[in-house]
Write a structure and sequence with these properties.
Put_ABC_export, membrane, 518 residues, ABC exporter
């Protein structure tokens, strides 16, 4: 056990050392930590408007349920492994008993659950206002970390049992779908009881006493809401106890599992290693790394020259399942539902849908093309190769985001002219965002960490937005006031396309030198 604790301690110590491995990494780490710390301090220092009554409880419940179900479905829909390649190699070649390896997996769950919980809790102080003090925030972080601990431990148990009883994980996913179906059916009943009002049904649904007893998600919401309302004995204590006891029960079950999981775990550790490398290089994982590929043949029209890159990426997209290809649309629909349930303004929903679609575009396969040798050997101009490399991902992102925005606009009863304007605005900034990413690679190369890539990308996107804002000011002066939204969107589209073309031209050197190849 000492060896296990030493390995855990060293792994986190080495991660900390890598953050300060160079001058640039040190400066960016200090800036990132300082920025996060300042944001966290400001969340408790500024005057924050309180989301009152059922609104706060409903938002908490919806957030916990959304993240939990997405994480569960993500775990159960693919084989990414439960140990990194380094850990798996060390564990399975060293003189360790099976229970010692299981104990290592159980212990390592705690920091992972706490880190995931922190990312989820980071924005909670902003909408709970003065109701959430620093001590209460720490308790909320503990409660949400306990929920994630249950999710991780249950997945590890399902994964290990599935190595011996093939199909066990598939059955677990059916159970998850049945659970989601029951929750959806209950929500439909609430809608019928509240005159088909989504907002009223959402408040009744998440604040009803029976929802407190929904496993994991209801318990977590119950505990947090009881903490905020001061209901410690009959609310916080039983709900927190359920989470703690569930973690203990899952830990005991995992520790006593007798399946031989070594070979399967070692094999899947390569997939997990690939995901980690994608995150390290790009700040996100390639979509093909997260999806199961179709085995049936797919037809694609092949083009020559630089357009061959376009053909290959289209073929790869056809090999990915329908659910994976449509994930941006599904996420957009979820944001629309959230906006309707919480009574948000459509402009805010538009911002959420746009942010979600642009964030998911970070997983497009074109990121990987810049590191493949054959791209450099295609007899075509560098500018053409840059454009055709990002074109499939860009088209997919624009279409998915536009569909989500149009659906949301229809739900919120937005006029046809405004729908067109919102779609144009989204498309123009999608183009700008993608080519700002390309320019980031051109400037810093392929060896930088995800933190450097993300930081530089944000700077470039902010800088390239300045021309669009300048055009907006000029249009306002010419029209002697604020013009209609469609006029504004057309002006932004023109200037963003021009800015993107300049970024693509300045980035053409990516395919003239192989500095990104690894």
């Amino acid at each position: 056990m000492r060896a296990m604790m030493f390995l855990l301690r060293k792994s986190y110590a080495n991660k900390l050392k890598r953050a300060f491995s160079s001058l640039l990494s040190t400066v960016l780490t200090i800036l990132a930590v300082g920025g996060v710390g300042l944001t966290f301090v400001m969340a408790f220092r500024i005057d924050r408007p309180l989301v009152s009554g059922a609104g706060a409880e409903t938002i908490l419940a919806g957030l916990v349920l959304m993240i939990g179900l997405i994480l569960y479905n993500s775990f159960l829909s693919r084989d990414t492994g439960i140990l990194t390649m380094a850990d798996a190699t060390y564990m399975f070649t060293g003189p360790f008993e099976r229970r010692t390896v299981l104990a290592y997996i159980i212990i390592s769950t705690a920091p992972g659950a706490a880190l995931t919980g922190f990312f989820i809790c980071f924005y909670i102080p902003y909408f709970l206002g003065s109701l959430l003090t620093v001590p209460k925030f720490l308790v909320v972080l503990l409660l949400i970390s306990l929920m994630f601990g249950c999710i991780y431990l249950s997945y590890y148990y399902i994964y290990i049992v599935d190595t011996e009883k093939t199909g066990f994980k598939k059955k677990a996913r059916y159970v998850l779908f049945a659970f989601i179906g029951l929750l959806a059916a209950a929500f439909v009943v609430q809608m019928l009881a509240n005159g088909l009002s989504i907002t009223a049904a959402g408040k009744k649904y998440f604040t009803h006493w029976w929802y407190n007893w929904v496993p994991l998600f209801g318990w977590t919401k119950w505990a947090i809401n009881s903490l905020l309302t001061g209901n410690y004995l009959t609310g916080l204590l039983p709900a927190a106890s359920l989470l703690v006891l569930t973690n203990i029960a899952l830990g005991i079950a995992l520790y006593n599992v007798k399946a031989d999981f070594y070979e399967k775990t070692l094999e899947d550790s390569t997939n997990l290693q690939k995901l980690m490398e994608d995150y390290k290089a790009n700040g996100s994982a390639d979509a093909r790394s997260l999806a199961k590929l179709r085995k049936k043949a797919s037809f694609v029209r092949y083009y020559e020259g630089a357009a061959a890159i376009f053909s290959r990426q289209v073929l790869e997209n056809k090999k990915i399942s329908f659910m994976s290809n449509m994930r941006q649309v599904f996420v957009g629909i979820f944001y629309i539902i959230i906006g309707k349930v919480f009574g948000l303004d459509f402009s805010f929903v538009f911002a959420m849908v746009s942010f979600g679609a642009l964030s998911m575009s970070l997983g497009d396969s074109w990121h990987r093309d810049f590191k493949k040798p054959y791209v450099y050997l295609i007899p075509a101009g560098s500018f053409q190769k840059v454009v055709f490399s990002v074109l499939p991902g860009l088209i997919k992102s624009v279409l998915s985001g536009s569909v989500s925005i149009a659906l949301g606009a229809l739900v919120f009863n937005i006029g046809a002219q405004q729908i067109l304007a919102y779609v144009i605005i989204f498309a123009s900034f999608s183009i700008l965002f993608v080519f700002a990413e390309v320019f980031t690679y051109r400037i810093i190369g392929g060896g930088a960490s995800a933190m450097v890539v993300a930081f530089m990308r944000i700077l470039f996107v902010m800088a390239t937005c300045i021309p669009a804002l300048a055009v907006l000011i000029v249009v306002m002066i010419l029209f002697q006031g604020v013009p209609d939204l469609l006029t504004i969107s057309l002006g932004m589209l023109g200037i963003n396309i021009l800015s993107s073309a300049l970024l693509a031209f300045f980035s053409r050197g990516i395919f003239e030198k192989s500095e990104l190849m690894s």
